[in-house]
Amino acid sequence: MDLIKIYDMINNGRVEExxxxxxxxxxxxxxxxxxxxxxxxxxxxxxxxxxxxxxELIQHYPDETELYLIAAENxxxxxxxxDAIEWLLEIKEKDDNFLQAQMLLADLYQLQGLDEVAExxxxxxxxxxxxxxxxxxxxxxxxxERGDFAKSIPxxxxxxxxxxxxxxxxxxLRLAEAYSxxxxxxxxxxxxxxxxxxxxxxxxxxxxxxTALQVKDYELAAQKFEELKAMDYxxxxxxxxxxxAYKHQKKWEAAFEAVQEGLKVDNFNDQLYVEAGIVQWSxxxxxxxxxxxxxxxxxxxxxxxxxxxxxxxxxxxxxxDDMIDLADHLQALGETDVLFEWNKARAYAGRDDLEEALxxxxxxxxxxxxxxVFLDEYGEVxxxxxxxxxxxxxxxxxxxxEPDNQAAALRIExxxxx
Length: 418
What we know:
By secondary structure, the protein is mostly helical. It has helices at 3-11, 15-28, 31-44, 47-60, 65-77, 81-89, 98-111, 115-128, 133-146, 149-161, 171-181, 185-198, 202-214, 218-231, 238-248, 252-265, 270-282, 286-299, 304-316, 320-332, 338-350, 354-368, 372-384, 388-401, 406-417. Helix 3 runs antiparallel to helix 4 (47-60), helix 14 packs antiparallel against helix 15 (238-248) and helix 16 (252-265) runs antiparallel to helix 17 (270-282). The termini are far apart.
């Protein structure tokens, strides 16, 4: 039975019978026929059956370096990485298969954590063929995977200029990722748009939406995050950004709907509870906002944003006891953010307990001496406690940080004229 009939037999589901006939044919096959049998084994993923044929062919044709490439790929399939490296190192610089060998070596060295060796291999190959599109794309991909986005861009751009296209995936999307990661958002937007027309990838769609947020195209960002959600509603990381896109448009109801959808996917995500609290506060639903923000802190006491929003909300509503209780609670849990001391200080000041407030202001001054809101509050407490000269010094410090602050300048002038 010839090889084509055996191949058809295997493809039609008669695998065991087909492999038996293939093994029988192998015993009497010529070298060319054995090479063809090898191709069938490789296509079927039968690396263990391929290896004896490869070894035999290399023994008879030691100058055919294509066989070395096949041997290396076979060794990789058998998890014999060191053997693969040995085969590839046999392919010398003058050989036509040298470039492919270097790219395979680079992949293997990366798998072994030898990034510098991998990079050296790729750069050596580039010296031999500086305009080879596959190699340029390979170097760009190498730097992209390492997170060295700035280095990846020139190589990916050159690959693009030489007309390179990935068999699967999109060069444009790789360029978009690199441009976005380096803060070149306008260029990233262009490549995301082109790349997503070539290939629809969820991670790329997330990148497009995220980049749209960075360029403040909030409507487009929301649209793309919604598209991503329609593709996979369990893509949990999209929800905080979708909420942000709606918040920037002041679409509070849509933002809260996104919060609720996100919590169905991940109800232990403290940041979603923060967003829920912010949205409800924007809708003037104070009690609901408090509940969500407290839940965020219960899940993660280190969530400084949740604490900050709660402190701001209670300060606005003059709920000073709640501010002090929260600061004490978080500090008892071991949280040490200066924000807690400051809000405790301003709460004591708010309820006119200045003797408690002033030592706290004094204590945190070194850390907050560049914060103009803090300096203004500190100055007021000092003045009320009768420390006029020190209050003037603090407001002068405020003017150094914010020279155009007319209110502080006026206070200083009035105090100096008294």
